[in-house]
Design goal:
Low-confidence stretches: 1-6
Largest sheet: 2 strands, antiparallel
Strand order of the largest sheet: 1-2
Mean pLDDT: 81
Structural class: mainly alpha
Shape: globular
Order of helices and strands: HHHEEHHHHHHHHHHEEHHHHH
Strand content: under 5%
Distance between the termini: 25 Å
């Protein structure tokens, strides 16, 4: 009854708001170009649907995460501002949830979950360090504020899912939407191959970052493998084969990103499934076959990328190469290592709270960036958050009774380890196109015990009803 009343009140509020807005928009649209008018009308319809139906909002969010264009410009150093469709969707979704919680206090703004405290501690540390950075003129206020808000946006995706997902049907449908998005991204990536350039995610333009696409692909591949390697998790053999072929095909654009950090992130995925899976011989066989056939099937660009990593240069370029463990590293990786050393000198000057978010120059390494921007306190809270994600996911994998939930959690566990590996040489945990899917999947996984409890209760109620029918008491 409460849910019906909630839906009624939400629809009533939406209607009251939509009527005057529609009148105003209609008066404006008659004076603009038809194309703009249609675009605005479609946009308004999407906004209203998003406001009314949270499920629709999450579906829209899932597809917009990788398929949303960016407006505006921003440099890697944090200059400028970009806005994406999913940014707007999250604002609307948050407004909707605030309206519902205002009507019904029992809903709560943030449902209690094992990650609430770690997220709160790390968010506070980001605000505190950035505020201090502003006071000491290390951080430009606008840049620092926008970056911290972007971090919060990732966590809002998590809270949205945890607060809203209540049934296995919702869970399954959102996973299907994630896989459809993955399929679209793979197709778009394959279409880029004839260009001869490094492959990037859709709508990233000429200045796209292949490392982002590589990180996203290995994240989803890691989850897919868990569902594929365990027979019966996907009931339909046809659907299981389809996912198998899609995942196999996705390996080609993954390699053609030429992102060495993403390739390295694939190593723990292989090791994890050799350890965890009963069908480890498939993984071992594929790896052996791949190594033997690599010189034949891999494009020259991939092989050259691997060779270049340890190739000693001549002339001035040789002076820019670092030596690590007796190996000479290419100029690009060497520059990254020098930036870490430079950041470490900054850490020693401000070890506790760092320089604030965006308070240090560009640094392409998640752990070192967290350390130099938020100090040892910030790094400790970040590590606590990551430990909590891994620990809770492991417990859900270990104790889940529904097979699909169990192996989806396993996939996310392996995918998280892959992302931590990826973040050694990239700012993985602040990259929008990786972190929005990451925190959405995290929300689904953390919701599993709650959903499972409801599903098991439904099953017990059904057994009780069948028993009563047999006894003739109903």
């Amino acid at each position: 009854m409460a849910n019906r009343l909630l839906d009624y009140n939400t629809n009533l509020i939406t209607t009251i708001i939509a009527l005057p807005i529609s009148i105003i928009v209609a008066l404006i649209l008659v004076k603009v170009d038809t194309v703009y008018a249609i675009t605005a009308a479609v946009g308004l319809g999407v906004l209203i649907l998003t406001f009314i139906n949270t499920d629709f909002a999450i579906y829209a969010l899932i597809f917009s995460m990788l398929l949303s264009p960016e407006f505006g410009t921003r440099t890697t150093a944090g200059e400028g501002v970009t806005i994406r469709i999913d940014d707007i969707l999250l604002i609307i979704i948050l407004f909707t949830w605030l309206a519902k919680t205002a009507l019904y206090k029992e809903l709560g703004l943030f449902k209690k979950s094992p990650l609430n405290k770690p997220i709160a501690y790390y968010t506070f540390m980001c605000f505190f360090a950035t505020g201090a950075g502003m006071l000491f003129h290390h951080v430009k206020p606008l840049n620092g504020l926008f970056f911290v808000l972007k971090y919060i946006e990732f966590f809002l995706v998590y809270f949205l899912v945890v607060n809203h997902v209540r049934t296995k049907k919702q869970f399954d449908n959102f996973v299907i939407a994630l896989l459809i998005t993955f399929a679209i991204v793979v197709i778009v990536s394959i279409l880029q191959i004839p260009s001869g350039k490094r492959i990037t995610a859709p709508f990233e333009g000429d200045a796209g970052e292949p490392n982002t696409l590589g990180g996203y692909l290995i994240f989803i591949i890691a989850i897919n493998l868990s569902l594929i390697l365990k027979p019966g998790i996907i009931p339909s053999p046809k659907h299981r084969r389809l996912l198998l072929w899609l995942t196999a095909v996705s390996v080609f654009p993954f390699l053609l990103t030429n992102s060495r950090g993403s390739w390295v992130a694939g190593i723990p995925v292989i090791i994890a499934y050799i350890i965890l899976s009963n069908r480890r011989w498939i993984i071992v066989g594929f790896v052996v076959f791949f190594i033997l056939m690599a010189p034949i099937i891999l494009p020259d660009t991939v092989i050259d990328r691997v060779k270049y990593t340890f190739q000693k240069q001549q002339g001035y370029a040789a002076t820019l190469q670092e030596n690590v463990g007796g190996l000479t590293i290419d100029t690009s990786a060497s520059e990254r290592i020098r930036s870490w050393k430079d950041a470490w000198t900054g850490v020693k000057k401000s070890p506790l709270f760092g320089y604030g978010i965006t308070g240090w120059r560009f640094l392409d390494a998640q752990f070192m960036r967290v350390l130099v921007e938020t100090g040892f306190f910030g790094l400790a809270f970040f590590m606590y958050l990551m430990y909590s994600v891994l620990n809770e996911t492991w417990k859900i994998y270990k104790y889940s009774k529904i097979p699909f939930f169990k192996y989806f959690a396993q996939g996310f566990l392996v995918a998280t380890i892959a992302m931590l590996t990826h973040s050694i040489g990239a700012n993985t945990f602040i990259i929008i196109r990786i972190m929005e899917p990451f925190w959405l999947v995290c929300g689904l996984v953390i919701s599993i015990p709650f959903i499972e409890e409801i599903e098991m209760q439904k099953f017990e109620d059904l057994k009780d009803e069948v028993t009563r029918i047999k006894l003739g008491t109903i």
